[in-house]
């Protein structure tokens, strides 16, 4: 048997109230008010496609052995780097080692489903698993329909031959150069065509083409489909497509436009994760990806489907939320306004690539050291052991600490130093089992940090070097109960 | 067995510029202002100075590297001059270099001068600067108040102190220093404040508010040192001599190992004990007449009272609120206003403290003169509570 072996999800905690978007923009476009239902997910200033991919990957690896992963595909149209393999950054943050196939898949809203088909069609290679992470940090114009309907998120799937939770039954792709929207190499935001045309000439024709071919090939009847994934920011279109094909309305997986927003390339995979969470053994799951044609993939849930619930999953990620009604902060985090950063924010952030490479185990992997002589755990790993009773030279073995919880020892909320979201919370974190580090905290609610509070580690943007178009990553601590 | 520095070196003369926002003065102007006072006080000719140590803390926003800025500003006669930098301990480090040179017999008369020009930066607080290529990649952007504010969280947790009580004691520290600074014409801040003002000021880094922070100032201070014998030969009476000079530097244990609890400064405890031993002080609470400590933030001064053994552990809040360290208390602290109000031009601060000792011992401290002081302890702390440099000097009457 071959198919999906694990899944994971990540949705940024911040959910921007759509009423706040409408309040700020309906003077210009009153029709926005009609779309202002619920909320949408929003990346924190220190989150991007790579950091969300790491979070979703970690969630997926909560039920999948990281040592079994021999392939990592990262699918997105919002990759932070055009020439620096983004999937390699993700793989190193997930500590997947240095012997695996990695690839970025991009340039279409169906990049995630296309990558998935490619993984599934390449079949089993030994006993390993391939990991797909789809992640999207969607950007849109201020006051646009897209701003109201889109969201940020990531999802991950394990693909392999062992412990399969959803068996791969087949796939089809219908290809046509249908340009509902596009983004050229010189632009940062999308340009879209008319919704009604996209519905009538796009979704309503393209999706049935691919699906009918697939069902014919696999001998499955549309009425037997238990879960149908079609990502779309058009609220009524997926239901219309389902009806046209004879798929039951109950089978349609909700797009969560009013709670997450449509998260681009990540969305079909995120909705598939939601479907897997609810599926019963034997359920048929049809996943489609729309963009210059349609991908269609069919799975059947196995009797292991309930055994491999990830640590957070879609429902968990959806529930882990923080309301925000500050539209200006959203604009600021997404570089849609020119902000005052203060003179402290002007300091040069040169990226010293040689030093960064030398320190990549610490910076990307959050790897510390454990002393062979006395057992002391320490981060960073240095030449001499930090234990004054020991002090051995070159005695430390690598000790990955990204999954180790810590507790706050000392802390403050700093309003003097530069931060994109002041005050800057940081402090001394003491790790379970040993080791301590002065580090940044992120996504802290006032009053949630105190000495003794448990914290977990999260891969985040540490700094933007806007002068040279670079961004640096490191790990930050977040209160566990959040 | 080393015999230590006690009474081997005497102060021949000292000078200190006015501290403050000296918009119209250059680093060279500040150096000359302190130097001319020191030279006149010593009663010697510039050419009698044989070696010099120069302290400047923040290169990028000050005079640049090397000792050349000193030699050029003062037109020194091509004597050996050395630039030292050890964060906020820089001033004391310059002094240590000059004192050791005299004590070793390498020269008869040496100059130590510290200067800092902080107000050319364009914003309040200390200049934002690099911590080194590797450190910048993972250290938080911690500001000085952000680093020291954490001492309050560690202290509260260790001793079970209520947030409001600690804040009130911190306010008392600042109110006292403002009262002292108001009597010092060279001080940056010469205005008294109330406890309510200090408590209600906006937060800079929780729980440090505006009035918990020291002044960020331009300034320079200098000392001309020699042996007691030469000082006497030059006609000096009532000599002031160096009793101890100690330094303790973190090795990463507080920041990376499990033992430090975040409530105190480990290096201060080490340097203090070494200094008391060097000076032959057995009962510091009875023998020390005055202290000038590194009150970069009120919480630092409060914790330092315990680290110097002047308060029992966990009792500094009580002692501070009791007025033990006020001008009329059992051991006055920051009688000149401290970093808080005299100001904190980094490279000059350690020397400014010794300048106040020197004035007090000579009965030249004006409205803030203490009655018959014998021994003074000065303390500087560079860096952060979790990794730092502590310098301690003990200065006293040469008897």
Summary tags:
heterodimer; A: 482 residues; Peroxisomal Thiolase, Chain A, domain 1; OB fold (Dihydrolipoamide Acetyltransferase, E2P); 9-stranded mixed beta sheet; 5-stranded antiparallel beta sheet; 13 helices; 29% strand; B: 399 residues; alpha/beta; 14 helices; globular
Any chance you could write out the topology, listing elements then pairs?
The complex is a heterodimer of chains A (482) and B (399).
Chain A: E1 3-10, E2 14-17, H1 18-25, H2 32-35, E3 39-42, H3 49-60, E4 69-75, H4 86-93, E5 101-105, H5 111-121, E6 129-136, H6 145-149, E7 153-160, E8 166-175, E9 181-182, E10 191-192, H7 195-218, E11 225-230, H8 237-245, H9 266-278, E12 284-290, E13 293-301, H10 313-319, E14 322-324, H11 327-333, H12 353-358, H13 360-363, E15 367-371, E16 377-378, E17 396-400, E18 406-414, E19 424-431, E20 436-440, E21 454-465, E22 470-479
Parallel strand pairs in A: 2-14, 4-5, 4-6, 11-12
Antiparallel strand pairs in A: 1-7, 1-8, 2-3, 6-7, 8-13, 9-10, 12-13, 15-16, 15-17, 18-19, 18-21, 19-20, 21-22
Chain B: E1 10-16, H1 27-42, E2 51-55, H2 68-74, E3 81-84, H3 90-104, E4 110-116, H4 144-159, H5 163-181, H6 195-200, E5 203-205, E6 208-209, E7 219-226, H7 228-233, E8 240-249, H8 253-256, H9 266-279, H10 284-287, E9 290-292, H11 298-307, H12 316-321, H13 338-341, H14 346-361, E10 375-384, E11 387-397
Parallel strand pairs in B: 2-3, 2-4, 9-10
Antiparallel strand pairs in B: 1-7, 4-7, 5-6, 8-11, 10-11
Helix pairs in contact in B: 1-2, 3-14, 5-11
């Amino acid at each position: 048997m071959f198919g999906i072996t694990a899944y994971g999800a990540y949705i940024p905690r911040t959910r921007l109230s759509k009423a706040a978007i409408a309040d700020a923009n309906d003077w210009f476009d009153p029709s926005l008010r009609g779309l202002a239902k619920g909320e949408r997910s929003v990346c924190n200033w220190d989150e991007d496609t790579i950091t969300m991919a790491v979070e979703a990957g970690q969630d997926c690896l909560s039920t999948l052995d990281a040592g079994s992963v021999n392939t990592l595909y990262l699918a997105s149209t919002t990759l932070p780097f055009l020439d620096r393999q983004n999937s390699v950054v993700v793989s190193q943050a997930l500590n997947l080692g240095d012997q695996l196939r990695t690839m970025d898949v991009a340039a279409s809203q169906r990049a995630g489903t296309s990558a998935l088909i490619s993984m599934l069609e390449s079949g089993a290679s030994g006993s390993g698993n391939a990991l797909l992470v789809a992640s999207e940090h969607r950007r849109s114009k201020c006051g646009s329909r897209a701003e109201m309907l889109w969201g940020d998120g990531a999802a991950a799937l394990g693909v392999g031959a062992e412990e399969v939770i959803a068996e791969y039954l087949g796939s089809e792709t219908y290809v046509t150069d249908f340009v509902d929207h596009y983004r050229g190499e010189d632009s940062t935001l999308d340009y879209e065509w008319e919704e009604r045309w996209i519905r009538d000439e796009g979704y309503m024709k393209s999706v049935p083409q691919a699906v009918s071919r697939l069902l014919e090939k696999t001998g499955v009847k549309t009425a037997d489909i238990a879960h149908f994934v079609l990502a779309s920011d058009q609220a009524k279109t997926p239901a219309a497509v389902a009806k046209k094909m004879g798929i039951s309305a109950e089978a349609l997986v909700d797009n969560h436009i009013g709670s997450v927003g449509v998260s681009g390339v990540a969305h079909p995979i995120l909705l598939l994760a939601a479907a897997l969470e609810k599926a019963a053994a034997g359920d048929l799951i049809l996943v489609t990806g729309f963009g210059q044609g349609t991908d269609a993939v069919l799975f059947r849930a196995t009797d292991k489907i309930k055994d491999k619930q990830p640590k957070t999953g879609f429902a968990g990620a959806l529930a882990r939320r923080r309301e925000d009604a500050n539209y200006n902060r959203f604009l600021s985090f997404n570089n849609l306004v020119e902000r005052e950063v203060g003179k402290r924010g002007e300091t040069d952030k040169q990226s010293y690539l040689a030093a960064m490479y030398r320190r990549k185990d610490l910076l990307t992997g959050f790897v510390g050291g454990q002393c062979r002589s006395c057992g002391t755990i320490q981060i960073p790993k240095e030449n001499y052991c930090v234990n004054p009773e020991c002090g051995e030279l070159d005695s430390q073995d690598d000790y990955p600490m990204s999954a180790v919880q810590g507790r706050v020892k000392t802390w403050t909320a700093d309003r003097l130093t530069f931060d994109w979201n002041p005050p800057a919370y940081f402090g001394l974190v003491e790790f379970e089992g040993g080791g301590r580090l002065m580090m940044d905290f992120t996504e802290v609610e006032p009053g949630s940090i105190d000495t003794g509070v448990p914290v977990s580690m999260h891969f985040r943007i540490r700094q933007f070097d806007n002068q040279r178009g670079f961004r640096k990553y490191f790990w930050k601590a977040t209160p566990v109960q959040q | 067995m080393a015999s230590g520095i006690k009474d081997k070196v005497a102060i021949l003369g000292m000078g200190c510029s006015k501290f403050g926002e000296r918009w119209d003065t250059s680093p060279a102007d500040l150096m000359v202002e302190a130097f001319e006072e020191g030279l006149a006080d010593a009663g010697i000719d510039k050419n009698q100075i044989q070696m010099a140590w120069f302290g400047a803390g923040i290169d990028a926003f000050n005079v640049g590297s090397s000792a050349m800025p000193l030699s050029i500003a003062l037109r020194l006669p091509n004597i050996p001059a050395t630039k030292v930098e050890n964060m906020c301990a820089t001033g004391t480090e310059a002094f240590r270099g000059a004192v050791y040179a005299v004590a070793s017999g390498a020269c008869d008369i040496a100059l130590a001068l510290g200067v800092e020009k902080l107000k050319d930066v364009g914003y309040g607080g200390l200049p934002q600067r690099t911590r080194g290529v590797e450190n910048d990649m993972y250290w938080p952007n911690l500001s000085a108040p952000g680093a020291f504010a954490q001492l309050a969280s560690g202290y509260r947790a260790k001793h079970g102190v209520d947030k409001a009580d600690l804040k009130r004691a911190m306010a008392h520290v600042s109110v006292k220093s403002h009262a002292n600074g108001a009597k010092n014409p060279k001080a940056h801040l010469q205005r008294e404040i109330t406890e309510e003002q200090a408590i209600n000021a906006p937060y800079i880094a929780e729980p440090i508010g505006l009035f918990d922070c020291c002044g960020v100032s331009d300034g320079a201070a200098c000392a001309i040192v020699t042996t007691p014998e030469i000082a006497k030969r030059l006609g000096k009476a009532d000599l002031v001599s160096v009793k101890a000079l100690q330094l303790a530097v973190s090795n990463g244990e507080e920041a990376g190992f499990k033992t430090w609890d975040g409530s105190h400064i480990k290096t201060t405890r080490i340097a203090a004990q070494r200094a008391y031993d060097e000076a032959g002080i057995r009962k510091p609470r009875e023998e020390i007449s005055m202290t000038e400590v590194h009150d970069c933030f009120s919480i630092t001064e409060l914790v330092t009272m315990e680290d110097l053994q002047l308060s029992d552990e966990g009792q500094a809040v009580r002692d501070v609120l009791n007025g033990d360290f006020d001008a009329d208390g059992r051991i006055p602290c920051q009688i000149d206003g401290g970093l808080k109000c005299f100001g904190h031009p980094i490279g000059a601060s350690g020397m400014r403290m010794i300048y106040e000792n020197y004035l007090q011992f000579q009965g030249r401290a004006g409205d803030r003169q203490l009655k018959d002081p014998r021994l003074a302890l000065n303390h500087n702390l560079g860096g952060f509570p979790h990794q730092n440099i502590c310098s301690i000097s003990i200065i006293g009457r040469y008897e």
